[in-house]
Write a structure and sequence with these properties.
alpha/beta; 16 helices
Length: 412
Amino acid sequence: MKAEIIAVGTEILLGQITNTNASVVARALATLGIDSLHQQVVGDNPERLTAAIDLAAHRADLVVLIGGLGPTKDDLTKQTLAAYLHVPLVVNFPAHENLRRYAKQSGHAMTPNNWVQAQLPFGAQPLTNHVGLAVGAIASRGAQHFVLLPGPPREFEPMVRDELLPALAKLAGGHAVLRSRVLRFFGIGESALVTQIADLIDGQTNPTVAPYIKDFEVTVRVTAKAASDAEADALIAPIAQELLSRLAPYYYGDGDDNSLAQTVVRGLANRQWQLTAAESLTAGALQGALGDVAGVSEWFKGGFVTYSNATKASMLGLDQAAIDAQGAVSDYTAKAMAQGALRQVGADIAVSLTGVAGPGPNEGQPAGTVWIGVATAQGVTAQEYHFAGTRNSVRGRAVKAGLFAVIQALQK
């Protein structure tokens, strides 16, 4: 099966957004052995979109259209495809009920154009939108297939993973099932990770091995196609074990929806430990990440945001003269902050972050210099990091490094 991807949206042509969805779906199709030979970007214009669909239909078995499924006037992808296939749009009743339920919960009256999101070309297989309102679809014409996917990544990515890939696996391989295991790593860059597993990537057939970088982390998706879930899992297991043996120092968990913060909370629950935190350059962002995890309140009672040396001293019960002498960005201060927070809250483990987010240096330390401390009843440690990038990227990396440091401490 050969594929062509069409990204729909004038905002992509104008450079207002980056066409990341095309690369995501191309990598996903590759796990099934489906090659993407061409890609197009076309604006919100039905004539030009029709021409793009027709061109793709003459050179591909699978045409994937991304975007233009919303309720606005310029969202015309499904209407254009239906017209091209000479079929009407029909209501998908589960999607219609989802819209009705959303309207009731939000208190917003649905206008006629909103209901279009629940329509799909006649005869098409629906692709359920588990996080949004616009239904996706696979419309077939003989042995040729046309896919409709929403544009917003938070809707697009789950639909590709949970709906499109299993459906295409059946189209491409009869009754084959598709199974994936996603391994998550922190503290190693994509190029370094790929170097360590290059032979596994180069030799992949079934399962496939696909690394991805996102938000300062690297994930590796191992995907197998087989006649049953059990057979697919058996194919995945030895590859996953080999990955873990090579990358163990950086591994923290599995799953598309997993996160460092969720792993911290599970680790605290396993040990029945209370956590606290003291943050300087990250200004509470680590505590905010923990706060996003359901059930965290049982294991995290609160912490501190201490930007100035005076605040570090007063809130954490530290010696300001010593902090001034050693410097806020130092091994001493990171350790003192963690120990002070542990003492003040009476927690079992504390993490501290202090450093220079940028854009310029501070206390003679270059931007990107970060110290992270971890304290427990057994003692305190601190580690120095040097992160590149903008002020916000330094802070984001520091938060994740702090969470990873807690995970490592909880595993000891």
